[in-house]
Amino acid sequence: MKISMTKSAWLFAGLALACFWPATARAQAETTPDTYKEHNAVPHTSAAPAKVDFQGKFSLPFEVRCHGHKMPPGQYTLTVKTVNDAKMATIEHDGKETVLQVSRVSQSSDSGKSAVMVRHGPGPRAHTVESVWVEPLNMMMYLDESGHTGFMDRMFASLKRVPIS
Predict the structure, then answer these.
(1) How many separate domains does the chain show?
(2) Is residue 31 part of a domain?
(3) pLDDT tens digits, one per residue of 121-132
(4) Could you tell me which residue, 158 or 58, shows the higher pLDDT?
(5) CA pair distance 20, 13, nearest whole angstrom
(6) Is 65 among the domain residues?
(7) Does any domain span residue 66?
(8) Considering the entire predicted model, what is its pTM?
(9) Range of the domain at 131
């Protein structure tokens, strides 16, 4: 009985190890584009250049977060582009660019000058760049809505407008 229990335990351990051990794979071919010729194919065209819709500058007096990026206090440049019917926001600071996908766009009746909307709420994400209001485009672009997903953030968070010049 003791021998069969030991064999069963070793068999179970071996099966568990085989199931959870990662299988290794090796590439079998080079993937150089010059190696593979395409016959009867349409020639590749370059992507349409991005159209710059808006560009402005703003200043952050405190550190903020946006899509996991930490943005220290300082001067920033915001560029809004249209790429294949999608809006992209590029935020540049000290020569470093952060490209953010716009999650949602709405035509708003917001009045006032262009501004970056910074949500300040309790919790670890004290300041979050949530959206950008672009007056010339009459458009609210939502960049990161994670700052108000918790109950406390929805109840007690405040929205601050950082003007764009």
Answers:
(1) 1
(2) no
(3) 766 557 888 888
(4) 58
(5) 11
(6) yes
(7) yes
(8) 0.61
(9) 51-163
